[in-house]
């Protein structure tokens, strides 16, 4: 059977290479590398402002990754910006929120990474802490810390032990969005993973950056859920399923 197709959201920023200097669709190469290492086929999803574009894109996928990046605009969760919150990226917020909504509606497995987890919470009506002091070594510092799974969760089935994870964030989940449940915590109580129990497909968010680690288990959970959905869809359509 062919590899499940995993879409990864991207963002548009100014970039310069060779004689070129213009807006570019950007994504750290570690994201598609992790998807491939976990057995998936990575495709990049540049923002598309066309009406209904997110639904069309998600319909062509077996799984979705919402990548890390800039702070979510506080207006999205009814808050005034903290002075330490970064400038908004309204087009990216809109695109990724639409992707998340389409994925949940179409029962396409989704994994939110760092900002992606925060945006998943906001998409479900939750809120964010706009700044955490001394959580991962301070604002702008890449570090690591232990994360302990909540027993019985999807995340705990993928990573059953306390694990050291690479992290780079200064914001975190505050009030959980509708239907979401925490599935891992940091020692200071910060929600480090969340999921949507009872949903027909995997909906998982992690606060850290698995693409910066050699541990593929979180992404492998998404790829396996995507593979299962792809096989089910092919069986429903009458197409040959093939070996797993």
Structure in words:
With 244 residues, the chain is α/β, with parallel strands linked by helices. It has a single domain, classed as Class I glutamine amidotransferase (GATase) domain (Rossmann fold), CATH 3.40.50.880. Helix content is 27%, strand content 25%. The chain is built from six helices and 13 strands. The chain has helices at residues 30-37, 53-59, 90-106, 115-123, 154-158, 217-237, and strands at 5-9, 11-17, 20-26, 41-45, 63-66, 110-113, 128-129, 143-149, 163-167, 172-173, 181-185, 191-195, 203-206. The chain has a nine-stranded mixed beta sheet with strand order 4-1-5-6-13-12-11-8-9, with helices on both faces. The protein has a two-stranded antiparallel ribbon with strand order 2-3. It has a two-stranded antiparallel sheet with strand order 7-10. A hairpin with a 5-residue loop joins strand 11 and strand 12. Helix 2 crosses helix 3 (90-106) and helix 3 packs across helix 4. The model has no long low-confidence stretch (mean pLDDT 92).
